[in-house]
Design goal:
With 179 residues, the chain is mostly beta strands. It has two domains: 132 residues, Jelly Rolls, CATH 2.60.120; 31 residues. It has one helix and eleven strands. It has a four-stranded antiparallel beta sheet with strand order 1-7-4-5, with no helix packed on it. 18% of the residues are buried.
């Protein structure tokens, strides 16, 4: 859910006008009925899977330790890096990000925005728990995944037949007799 749509004169802030502030022009984000958002990368303008070398975002209203975090995964879904967001208090802004600088590539980022959820405008999943939302997302340009190309089928067939021929030739010996 997005807190304000283009053309709206006042910000809705998910129905909680006094709970959130913004870092830049008002456009906060939250998952509905979940505190988890998965970000997958694609080549811009396509459905082609991609990776990036850096990702970060600004959380709003992180008040409880160890409940808001980012997890970075490579193209094989292995966890590369995980970090909890710093607590910055009511209406505070917290930046959290990571850079892949040891040769790894980021294929997916799992964002956990606190423990509580926004069910709809003005309704929390649990009215007693704190809720965290997301502001600006920053990331390096996604580039297409570099996969190891599969050898052509004909080449594999040829190599298999060659191996069988050589094995048979060795078994028959020099004069075509069994050895």
């Amino acid at each position: 859910m997005v807190s304000t749509n283009a053309g709206e004169s006042s910000s809705a802030l998910f129905g909680f006008s006094s709970d959130f502030q913004t870092f830049s022009a008002q456009r906060l984000f939250t998952a509905i009925d979940s505190s988890i958002t998965d970000v997958n990368f694609f080549v811009p303008g396509t459905n082609t899977a991609a990776t990036t070398s850096a990702f970060g975002l600004i959380f709003v209203d992180v008040e409880v330790e160890n409940l808001t975090k980012l997890e970075f995964f490579d193209q094989n879904y292995a966890l590369i890096f995980s970090r909890n967001a710093s607590v910055f208090g009511n209406q505070g802004l917290t930046f959290l990000g990571g850079v892949a600088n040891a040769g790894e590539r980021i294929s997916r980022v799992r964002i956990t925005s606190g423990q509580n959820t926004i069910v709809s405008n003005g309704r929390l999943g649990n009215p007693n728990d704190d809720v965290v939302v997301m502001d600006d997302f920053l990331y390096a340009e996604p580039v297409q995944l570099q996969r190891v190309p599969e050898p052509p089928t004909f080449a594999l067939l040829f190599l298999g037949l060659l191996a069988l021929f050589n094995r048979r030739r060795l078994r028959l010996g020099k004069f075509g007799r069994n050895v």
